[in-house]
Each structure stands twice: as structure tokens, then as C-alpha cells.
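Predict structure. Chain length: 403.
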Amino acid sequence: MGKVSWTRGDGPLAPFAEGFESELRRLGHPPSAARHHMHLMGQLNRWLTGKHLGVGDLNPVEAELFFSSLRAAGVQRVPTLASLVPLFAFLRQQCAIAPVAAPTRTPRTELLDRYRHHLVNDRGLTPVTVRRYDTFARRFLANRAAARGAGIGTEGLSIAEINGYLLDTCSRLVVESAKREAADLRSLLRFLYLEGLIETDLGLAMAPVATWRGTRLVPTLSAADVSAVLASCDRSTVSGRRDYAILILLARLGLRSGEVAALRLADVDWRAGQLLVRGKARRQDVLPLPVEVGEALVAYLEAGRPSSQYPEVILTLYAPPRPIRPSSITNVVYHASQRAGLARVGGHRLRHALASEMLRQGGNLIEIAQALRQSDLATTSGYAKVDREALRAVAQPWPGEGR
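Prediction complete.
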């Protein structure tokens, strides 16, 4: 990468330019992104010089004033404070600016710390589930505290308020999302009871989210639709190879988004042609590795996955590379389905499509349950309704139809 002219001049940031450029390369930023960061650093350097400020004066408040000056000068697409995160981190490593101040401890943050400890150490939940429960608890308690004007957010909780909250949730969300939110709330309420912050275990008194199993067909995709989703990836690009590897794991092995995100390099046994899947409730299963899936993984690992200390197979595209989150995998499926000209679908729809295709090819429910790693055949039985031709063969005439 060529040097930017300002790095050879004066200014409070000039002495740090070469080191920052090297740090960007080490973190894996592509050349175009690194040039952007260096250009922004040069603009900030000139602004600090004009204000007679030193590097030690740089903080988020001054950075916002810098962005305001860019807007006043008519600059379009002014960056945000997030764009300076890599520079601030590097300058803190060099002890050039003050370290990040520790967040203020409040009774609510201390309660949330104890809740996370309870989820990890007492209940033994996975990091993904802990993150989900913690996110809900933060939002729920903050909203209640804001509505009441003060407090932790646990004061005055009653079963009437909880049921009212659930009614509102069910009016806004689909059944699956409402049930998930109810589970998040139930977990928090039981913890608050254990902490002695509420007198009754309101989690036990919560009304269940009404749902009836087997009332609708399992949503699915045809084999042609799945092929179109896979073909939408441009495998001549890094992002295309990564997205194709994600989609092929979902479509051919029926993995869940969280299982794809949790897949590690050591989980792939290339010699045996097997894949270790880390599923729900800490379950681990060994699946055969189809050639098509193996080839997609090899293409990504050889010419797509950046070098990283992380053991996970799938990493983010943007530097610094880090393990991808399940929500990001869902977004990959969203974009692929839209590129294929289909309605937006999530990763679970590809799992359903695999089960439906197995059924059309003559597979039975036990085989489908084994492939999807489902222990409850009642869950798998929903796929039987997808085979409408088979249903017609066993359907009984409606009483009085011949009249």
C-alpha cells in the first residue's frame, strides 16, 4: 500500500501513521478499507492541527466535533464514530490516548452480571442462549425502569402486568417469536424469584402462548428453488464462496444457523468423510460429509477464509475476522433467496426443504428424524402433510359428498 502524503508531514497523528497502517494489515483489512482508514486519519490529523490539539486531547467528544466540521464544510456521507474505532484502539495500545473508562456500576448492571453468572454456571446454557436471555433482560428491565422513572426495573412486578405484556407480545409477533419471548421472560422471572426480588415465582404463573400443533403445513421450498438459491452465489468472489459454503451446509445437511456458526475446523474429519455437529442442548452428532459439501468448504478454506486465531470455520467478511453469528447466517439466506427471485426466507426453510425432498424421494419419518437430529417424531410428523399426493391416497370422502 502506498504511503499517504500527510504521513510524511507534521501533525499529532503523523508519528502513528506507519504503525496504524501496519496494524490494519495485521487485522486483515483489505487494501481499499485500509486506504479509507488512513485517509480519515489524515483528515483528523489536519483538524487537530488546526485546533492546536494534541493526540492526548482526542476523545469521542472531540471526534464528534470533527465530524460536525466535515458536515459544515459540505462533505457528503460523513463517517460516524464507529469508523474511528480501529484508530482509537490502536492509539490506546500505544498509550497515546486515555483508556476506555470503566462503565458505571449500577444496581441493575450488578443484577444483570449475577443473572449471566446464573445462566452460565447454574443452568449451563450455551453462549448463544445466554446472549439471547441477557439481551432480553437488559431491554425488559431498562424499559420498566424508564417507565417508572427510577429503580432497577423489578419493582412492582405483578402477574397482571406480565400477562398484559404477553398479550401485547402475541399481537405483535408470530407464534414462534412470541413463544421465544415468553421463554426469555420466564427465565428472568424465575431468577428474580431466586434472588428474592419478587415474592412469587411469576414464571410459573405465566399464561402459555396459545398454539396448536399440526394446524398448518410446514413451509418449504422446492428442489428447484433450493438450486436457485445456491446458484445465486458468485463463487468467483470471496463473499460468494463463503455464502455458498454456508448455504450448502444448510441445504444438504439440514443444519441450523447456530450449528453452522459453531462448526470448527477440527470438527471436519477429511479422511473419514465426517462432520461433527454441535447442536441444541449441547448435543453432538457425527454426520457424513457429502462430496458437494466438502468441495464447497475446501473452496472457502483455500481461497476465502482469512487466517485467524479463531477455530470456527465460518468467519466474517469484514476485518478483523471473527466468528460469524447465527443472525448473520440468516441474513445470508435472506439475500440469497432475494437474488434467486424468491420471497425472503430464513435458514430454517432450507432445513424444511431437505426433509420435504427426502419424503418425496421415498424416505420415511424415522429416516428424516435421524437426518435432522430430531428426537421427537411428533415434530417430524409435520413433514408428512407436505406430500399432498400421498395424503390424497389416504383421504376419506367427505360425508354427504355424493348427495
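Summary: DSSP finds 18 helices and three strands in the chain.
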